[in-house]
Amino acid sequence: MLYLWLADTVVSLHFAFVVFVVAGGLLVLRWRWIVWLHLPALIWGALVEFNHWICPLTYLENWLRGLAGVTAYRGDFVEHYLLPILYPAHLTPDIQIVLGVLVTAINAGIYGGWLARSWRAGR
Questions:
Q1: For all residues of the chain together, what is the average pLDDT?
Q2: Which long-range CB contacts under 8 A does 75-82 form with residues at least 24 apart?
Q3: Model-level pTM greater than 0.85?
Q4: Are 120 and 113 contacting, i.e. CB atoms less than 8 angstroms apart?
């Protein structure tokens, strides 16, 4: 039971990380120091999507599920948990590229606005 609870905890943390990658730039607008946490997370998230990697958290979750005696799933976290919510089809490399571009574009817009506001305030 402990391993299953740990696996579920990893899923929750993984989901929180994905949300942070996508929308963490908004936190930077309020707390500037978060940029030092968000930029590496954003880069990692984009690299995972663009290179079709499977995040190590997925391996950790599957390993914990195996220890709990539960069958691990195939694929990655996005494919298993997020895409069924967003899309009915299976994850493809093209969808991963779109997701990576979307995450990058959202945050580029947020950071661009933040930099422009900072620049105007400094004049």
A1: 84
A2: 77/11, 77/14, 77/15, 77/18, 78/18, 78/49, 81/11, 81/14, 81/15, 82/15, 82/18
A3: no
A4: no
